[in-house]
Batch of 4 targets.
Target 1
Amino acid sequence: MSKRPVPKTEPETSTTAVVAAMQPTPFDAPDGWGGVPQRDGQTYGDFLKFVNGEYRSGEAVMNGREFIPVHVTVCWVRWLDGRPAETLVTKPGERHPERVELGHDDESEWELGLDGRPSDPWRDTRLVQLIDPKTAQAFTFTTSSWGGRDAVEELSRAIAFVRSAGHPGALPLIRLDVGRMRTRFGPKPKPVLSVLDWRYDRRAEALAAQNAPPEQIEAQAEKPSLGEELNDSIPW
């Protein structure tokens, strides 16, 4: 499958660096693997898209496959002649721009969409880099639809919750599922990134504990575990 990488407009984070940071053993072991040059990019592996209720990579249907989402890129992508022409990446902690701030507002200059009407060249896009935990096969799930962005947002909330509960660096094991959403055209399928389990970064947790002030360590020791919080019962 041929794939068109999103043009780079600024330095980007390598998925390889993210994966390396998760390894239980150092990558600089004297076996040579740590010295192999790695390419940088916002996309990694084959593209994965959600189309008409199916996760597709080329001709392969990936529904039900399980992955670890190791990185996400939030960006606006401007399309021209069917190809990405400009990418504006929002880094973590930065405010994501509104569409009205991007320019290219003259609809008379927009290309026609599939419905024959002018189509906005800017797409609010999410690029989620996925790794198969069994084979290390890599994909980039790309979405600019409302349903796709909502699925990524839901996943980000789950990750934030678990990390705030004392597991910095935690990443979920997810399954590519399909849900339904109501639209003005009737029910439509939407992507659902279902969380099955969690992978914890013990090194990040140990480092966080070492750097925490004494009062925070004491409070953390008294704090119930994530399992206790989720399994709490109502006393009446």
Target 2
Amino acid sequence: MWRGVTRRLSGSRHHLIDLGFFGPAKAVLPQAVPWVGVGHSLGFLWLIRQLAVDPEHRKNCLGLVSVNGFARFTRGEGFSAGVSPRIPAAMRARCGTDPDGLLRDFRIKAGLPADLGPVAVPGMDRERLALGLDWLAEWDVRGFLAAWDRPLLALACDGDRVVTPAITRASFEATGRQVHWYADSGHLLPLIRPAWCAERIAAFQQILMDEGSLNPYGGDNGTAHESHRDAEP
């Protein structure tokens, strides 16, 4: 997912996180060093949850980057932009009965070609993926993001059929955050538009350097990227 982006940000150290849907999980944030958190979709939601429950992580996180991300996914009180809770519930059920079809349909909806090739179902951890779908249905970090007083960059697509523009606006613009939009693309910006993502992340890092948050010579600074192996062709 992040290979094209990290290759273009060669001046930074990268700490890749894997949520374990298609292999061993590596879901540990950087310890005792300053870092910038970059998360895609559910990965951004997961990242915010870690910050919300651990003050030590909050202390070391200098800024956040959301790529196709959101603060809440399902519709509920005060969040009419979300999807029906029935959608992640149906996906969770299908995870056990038709995982190949579930992933194929998701790829198409996310903007990848239908003829991309076989989906790596044998490597899928169905229990872990079902847990991720529970996170989608239940987690809500709007309050934490509204109180976040450090820099935040939000990147999104106006053609995203998974995290719709309405969800994006309700997650960020509703609390005064600016969103940088890419026209006519899908849900997998880091994979499909890595140069555009890297350019904006680099500009964000430069702002942090100008403010004195990041060491311009690298040092112990790091960038934590949430990684989904299932998105790679």
Target 3
Amino acid sequence: MPSQTGSMPGMKQLAVLGVFILLLAAPPAFGRDAQRDSAVRTRVDRVDISEWGIYKTEVVRTVDAPESLSGKASTVSRRKTELLTETDRIPAVLGTLFGFRYTLVGEPRHRKVPLTLKILLPPPQGQMASDQVRPTITHTLTPPISKKDFVGFGFQTKEEQVPGTWTFQISYGDRLMAEKSFTVFLPNPTQPDTH
């Protein structure tokens, strides 16, 4: 389960809520293939980020997440996750899902590797980032090497619609492998929603 750090009031429940993480299992290896694969040393070279912006998707499973504001967290379909608009600017509108696709590069192909996803949220309104630790959502990912995957966040409640810089970081152990920032903004209420 994702955990949240920092002292932003009301954000403890945000830990799981809109985080849409794709964690679909790769086919298991059996027999000699499994023995051979376990003897091959894992090499992680880098994480390549592609296709960032606003997405639409299909939820495959929703689970209870009592620490979230809605009490639920979702897993989405890799095949039905579609980029709508490539952008770094994200309107804080309920139902908006944003994030990126990424590929773990290394050897052996298709071996699952534990990575850490951190989403650094903006500080509360009226506070500078230096005033306190930024609220952070943390989650463990296990993508297969060489297979494209997806991470993102979806606004499901008004409390999540926090404007500012949202930074996604993917790490392997202590190594920061990839980072992508988005500017979340509150849209002008007099303008129609265009996405």
Target 4
Amino acid sequence: MTNVLIYYTLSGEPSASLLVRAASLCTNRPPEQISIRRESGRKPVFLSPFPLYASVSHSGGVWAAAFSDVLPVGLDLQKTVSVRRMDGILTRYFHPAEREAVLAASPEARDAAFCRMWSRKEAAAKLSGRGIDGGFSSFDASASPTEVFGETLFIRDFALPGLLELAAAAVFPAEFEITLIPF
């Protein structure tokens, strides 16, 4: 099972500390048993004696982490905002099918559609280990499953309407469980 845990960062707690707390909840282990280091791509790696993969994102005061005990996972979270210069961003970073999907949304829903598609792309890019400069417009994240840099990925998005768009990507058809944990 892949768990997506969303934390509200009202306390201003550092991301590393939040990641330990979230991993503790996900694994039912005390925080003292969880050790983390960052890979070169800033992806967290758990040093504790149990398999756990994670991806972290934050936007608009909300911090989120996705965990899997099977295979790596990618996660992105976007606060739903009014997007300036949308046409330029769509042209530079989005696949033609993604641009079409965003522009097909009604004018009042277009910003949310843009943020949703961006979070899908970022989740896929994080899972692949490439950033937005590594061929970001070359793949179509509007479908699932989809081919991303030669690998089949499954992407699922979730929304807190009018507030947040969240997407998670995995190399297997994961069942995602979302847990909201305010503090």
